[in-house]
Amino acid sequence: SRMFAFEGGYHGRTLGASSITSSYRYRRRFGHFGDRAQFVPFPYPFRRPKGMTAEEYADKLVAEFARLFETEYHGVWDPKANESEFAAFYIETIQGTGGYVIPPMNFYPALKKVLDQYGILLVVDEVQMGFYRTGKLWSFEHFGINPDVVVFGKALTNGLNPLAGLWAREELINPEIFPVGSTHSTFASNPLGTALGLEVMRMTAEKDYEQQIMQSGAYFLEGLKDLQSRHPEIGDVDGLGLALRAEICQADGFTPNKALLDKMVDIGLSGTLEYQGQKCGLVLDVGGYYKNVITFAPSLEISRAEIDQALVLLEQLLLRAKREL
User: What is the pLDDT of residues 87-104, one digit of tens each?
Assistant: First the structure.
């Protein structure tokens, strides 16, 4: 009946969802309502231990997770009954609110082997990264894994109507074990929402979003790396498709610098930046374990000119914030 989830993971802030979200501040006001997930370290390449490659760090974390099942005294496995206390592992393939952290490509295949060995379901939360945000329909496609359950929403209707859904292996969800009416909600499957969802699926099938988004993302990432080369306060940049990150640090390029990013946010909202002779602003989305990461999730239709403008304004923000702090 219990669940695994990642440190830095975010799956929502309602009662059940907060139990698998690693931020205690979302659970605190609910009081004690049963088991929360057991949170497992996530492979954060930029903040990995010294002397390790990102891939070695990923292997180390998988080995530490697998150790939980070595004996009954590690608390999660009964070797006599061949049964785990844990039913599923909830993941975001790329952490969203955690700061768009992209794990090494060897991590998930190795983790899935352990889960399969002990009969634990892999549930992928694609609410933030699904529908081509990363250049694939589902972000897990980049990592060569087949999840047991996929949860999706938000982009399914482009925000016009609340609608979410789930996909699962047929043996887990079929008309015999999960007949019509097994679950219901006043606003579930409403006609407007389902019509919008179907239209989104049709529209994304009519265009090669994979190629378009990977090209736009590579162009944006190249621009962020150029900024990084000139500003030591940008400690890390990374991205997959149009899910990109820039980690703001002290001058050492590593120590988190929340104060600098907070100042950048304030200046961006003031509308006092300049681009081609006009006043404008720049809204930054902040995430990360230390709230020092700019997470970029622009429109999938963003143009090269708009990316160029964003990069110019971002550099203005950084320079002004450093002067004003």
Answer: 999 999 999 999 999 999
Q: What's the pLDDT at 215?
A: 98
16, 44, 76, 94, 188 from 61: Cα distances, Å: 27, 11, 17, 16, 39
Query: pLDDT > 70: what percent of the chain?
Result: 99
Using the 8-state DSSP alphabet, how is residue 181 labeled? T
The tokens 């914030």 sit on which residue? 321
3-state secondary structure (DSSP) of residue 237: strand
CA distance 258 to 262: 6
* Answer CATH for 2-205 from 3.30.70.20, 3.50.40.10, 3.40.720.10, 3.40.640.10: 3.40.640.10
Q: What is the mean pLDDT of residues 225-254?
A: 98
233 touches 253 (CB < 8 A): yes
Query: Distance between CA 248 and CA 293 in Å, rounded?
Result: 6
Q: 209-324 falls under which CATH superfamily?
A: Aspartate Aminotransferase, domain 1 (3.90.1150.10)
How many H helices and E strands in the chain?
A: 8, 14
**What is the enclosing helix (H) or strand (E) of 248?**
strand 243-248
Contacts of 213 (CB under 8 A, 6+ apart): 132, 133, 134, 135, 241, 242, 300
Are 131 and 204 in contact by the 8 Å Cβ rule? The answer is: yes
Q: At 230, is the secondary structure helix, strand, or coil?
A: helix
Query: Is the separation of the CB atoms in 289 and 8 below 8 Å?
Result: yes
Break the chain down into helix, strand, coil percent, rounded to 5: 40, 20, 45
Q: What is the pLDDT of residues 9-46, one digit of tens each?
A: 999 988 889 999 999 998 888 877 768 999 999 999 99
CA 109 – CA 89 distance, rounded (Å): 14
Q: What confidence score (pLDDT) does residue 170 get? A: 94
Token couple for 85: 């206390």
Q: Which of 158, 108, 105 is nearest to 130 (CA)?
A: 158
Average pLDDT over residues 226-246: 98
Mean pLDDT value across residues 227-247: 98
